[in-house]
Amino acid sequence: MKRPTWILLIILLALVGLLIYLNQERNLETVAESTPVEPVEFLFSDTDGLPAEISISANQGDTVAIKRADSGSWVLAEPFEAEADQGSAEATASKVTSLRVLSRLDVPSDAVGLLPANYTLKLSFTSGVEKDVRIGDLTPTSTGYYASMDGETDTLILDKAGVEALLALIQSPPYLHTPTPSATASPTPQAESTPDLVETGSETPQP
What we know:
The protein is of the alpha+beta class and 207 residues long.
């Protein structure tokens, strides 16, 4: 076979390969466009505003609460009033607004740890809106937590990472300075007094 024929054959094969590649790319784009993307549903909307007060309570009674002061900085309100670590508090507020709803179910509240709730999240927003979120059990697939909220008839499943980041506040409140327990002096025990022992000798009979 002559050299020009070889060159033409190579060019032809290159063109065929290019056409196959372009056709595959076109098919991938078509599949991507035809595949619906599920919208992300957040628990709170933009119209609620930003969190101004955040309180989370465990069923056992432990409560941690932070609130935004008039100055705009975060302060710790419970378990006692103290300065708050601004970075940690602001991160908590961001976790609240980014809580995602994975799905909605119609299941009895008492069957998934919502009656009574394992945890209660109370929120006040800059818009004046106040919302209570009840948090129940971890789902069987361990992907989220059952939850319910005032005004919602469905049982919600919230994303696990977001919920657990908020639950961690109970164990690690955002103190600016970690409080150290004051040492209490224990009373010194008093030594019991021992009565003096008087040695009594036998009397010598008088003659």
